[in-house]
Design brief:
The complex is a heterodimer of chains A (300) and B (318). Chain A is built from twelve helices and two strands. Chain A is an all-alpha fold. Chain B is an all-alpha fold and 318 residues long. In chain B, helix 2 packs across helix 16, helix 6 packs parallel to helix 9 and helix 6 packs across helix 13. The two termini of chain B are 25 Å apart. The chains are: A mainly alpha (300), B mainly alpha (318).
């Protein structure tokens, strides 16, 4: 893409070392102190027993052994995976549909703006609003369910419904953003291709599978990796709607980690679980990258 | 700069009729597929926007009214009581009588905290990231590519991973329950901001810089007087998105703040929600608070709608 213009004949053979040091210094400070050091420290803490009050005490693999034998950890991992599967599945398909509609139907900027509005809300706001809409007694969502002749559904208070509900709430908040990312990818597809296909009598469906999907694939892959990583870190919505309940049914990994750290002050154990999450995320990123051949384009 | 059309009020959903007019020039009427597509689009718009209306309608109702008439599309017994409770303007007795918890929301303080933190993060992060981005894109120095590679690798570390150690660090620095403690971790840089701005600086023709240098300006001066102003578009783009992210952040501020002095709106809102009596939640007050908390971002959106919308695709994929 971008090619750094190679430096023209040097007027200052010594380069700009001093100036560069000055310019990079603040960012470097932030990088070292709040990104690199915490990363290393997080790994270190995972091998310790640490409660913030007394110095960290080295315990070797204890935290990891405990984690492997902790049924709640496995439960929360399962719940998280379930959440991610629903969230990403629904979100990707809907975002793709919205993006294609925005591209093939209209280029309206107003529509694009509308689709993005929920993204401006915090997860906390989104959580509270849907909590109200889905309220069993008074929520309009449940009023509609009742009006359709079904029993009211305790969306957030029922073990089976809670995770799908939270997943869909987050789809509501994020789908517009994802759609616009995909839309940007679609804009890069030359319109001539569609014109040509139309002349050949191709239907919209055919054009979607033969032109849109193959050409969008690299963008779709990047967006998928980004959204999956984000999705694994679900916390806010759970915190304001169900607090992990009922009966741990929405105890997602990040919520469990938070509880271990700030509820029980087991920072070592919480760190070990963060390392596990990091490993899972890295593996997924790597796999997705390989499987989708994200680096390659079919264009040209 | 042109001011894009404001989006404060939900624009009416596009109806199939208006669409027909726009795409008519070709033969026949609109195809079945096109009608279905527009129906889908309309449904999407409704699902997107109706919750916002429902917030407003609930916020303007009384709790008793909501219980009596849950499906009324209009505010039931219209009142501003919910807003008064959310803003802490009602006496405790009055608030409890209307279904509130009596615990007020020190709204202006949280608003100020949110504004302070978001502004500090956005301003500093982008300024420092721009400086670094310039050094990575335009200056020649040993180890440049290695250091940049290291920064890029930082993109891979998910936020959750650094949160706990960062909390320990902030605690050791004595900055827990301090607004600076909330801002500090993202104040100096994010790998993404550096990466994003570097792309821009790399694409500015070298001649621009050289002309200024020939005029005798130093490189620092060139950066501040020539290149930074040229970068105002990507800088503003990034600033808006950074501001939204900082404003909406919940997890980190929740970890760091314990009292009103450092509480930001997202955290305050979650607490307000937890406070409301479980027996009969103060929905009207809660929705009023929600609306007030969301309002600044909606206003920001109204001012920069077009830019925000086009910047999303712009920033995401690179």
């Amino acid at each position: 893409m971008t090619v750094a213009s190679t430096s023209p004949p040097l007027r200052r053979p010594r380069g700009d070392g001093a100036l560069a040091a000055l310019f990079v210094a603040p960012a470097m400070l932030g990088f070292l102190v709040f990104l690199l050091w915490p990363t290393l420290r997080g790994v270190y803490l995972s091998f310790t027993r640490f409660n913030l009050l007394t110095p960290a005490e080295w315990v070797g693999l204890d935290n990891y052994v405990r984690m492997v034998h902790d049924p709640i950890f496995w439960d929360s991992l399962t719940v998280t995976v379930e959440y991610v599967a629903i969230n990403i599945g629904v979100q990707t398909v809907s975002a793709l549909a919205i993006a294609v509609l925005l591209q093939r139907l209209t280029q309206s900027a107003v529509l694009r703006g509308i689709v993005l509005t929920p993204y401006l809300m915090s997860n906390v706001v989104a959580g509270i609003v849907w909590l109200w809409i889905l309220d069993t007694q008074l929520g309009i969502g449940n009023e509609i369910v009742a009006a359709l002749g079904f029993d009211r559904i305790p969306f957030l208070a029922d073990e089976t419904w809670a995770i799908p509900t939270i997943a869909l709430i987050n789809v509501w908040r994020h789908v517009g953003y994802t759609a616009l990312l995909l839309f940007a990818g679609l804009q890069a597809i030359p319109n001539d291709m569609y014109e040509a296909a139309k002349v050949d009598g191709a239907s919209e469906g055919r054009m979607f599978w033969r032109i849109t999907m193959p050409l969008l694939r690299p963008v779709l892959a990047v967006v998928l990796i980004m959204t999956v990583i984000g999705s694994f870190q679900v916390f806010d919505t759970v915190a304001v709607t169900t607090s992990g309940g009922p009966a741990n049914a929405t105890n997602v990994l990040q919520f469990y980690i938070y509880g271990a750290a700030f509820g029980r002050f087991q920072f070592g154990y919480a760190s070990a679980m963060s390392v596990a999450l990091l490993v899972v995320l890295s593996a997924i990123t790597f796999l997705q990258y390989r499987l989708t051949r994200a680096g390659h384009t079919d264009l040209g | 700069m042109t001011t894009p059309t404001a989006l404060t009020t939900p624009a009416p959903a596009p109806t199939p009729t208006s669409a027909k007019a726009a795409v008519q020039p070709q033969r026949r009427g609109p195809s079945l597929g096109r009608i279905a597509a527009w129906a889908m689009m309309t449904a999407i718009v409704l699902v997107t926007l109706l919750p916002f209306y429902w917030i407003l309608r609930t916020a303007l109702s009384t709790n008793a009214g909501l219980a009596a008439d849950p499906t009324n599309p209009l505010p039931v017994h219209p009142t501003t009581g919910g807003f008064e409770r959310a803003l802490g303007l009602q006496s405790t007795k009055e608030a409890i009588a209307q279904g509130g918890a009596g615990g007020g929301l020190d709204f202006w303080r949280y608003l100020l905290n949110s504004v302070f933190v978001s502004t500090l993060i956005t301003g500093c992060q982008i300024f420092f990231s721009a400086m670094a981005a310039y050094a990575f894109a335009r200056l020649r120095w040993r180890g440049r590519d290695t250091v940049f590679g290291l920064f890029l690798a930082g993109l891979m570390v998910p936020a959750i991973f650094t949160l706990l150690p960062n909390f320990v660090l902030i605690k050791q620095l004595g900055l827990v329950d301090n607004l600076l403690g909330i801002a500090l971790p993202t104040m100096f840089m994010t790998p993404f901001a550096v990466f994003f701005l570097r792309q821009f600086f790399m694409n500015i023709p070298r001649e621009v810089e050289e002309a200024a240098l020939l005029d005798g300006a130093g490189k620092i001066r060139v950066f501040f007087r020539v290149l930074l102003p040229m970068a105002s578009t990507p800088v503003l783009t990034l600033a808006i998105l950074t501001y939204i992210t900082a404003w909406n952040d919940y997890f980190w501020p929740l970890m760091v703040s314990y009292s009103d002095s450092s509480r930001v709106l997202t955290v305050a809102l979650a607490i307000f929600r937890a406070q409301t009596p479980q027996t009969g939640v103060d929905w009207s007050g809660l929705m009023a608070a929600t609306l007030i908390a969301a309002l600044p971002m909606l206003v920001l959106f109204a001012c920069f709608a077009r830019r925000i919308v086009s910047s999303v695709g712009f920033t995401g994929i690179k």
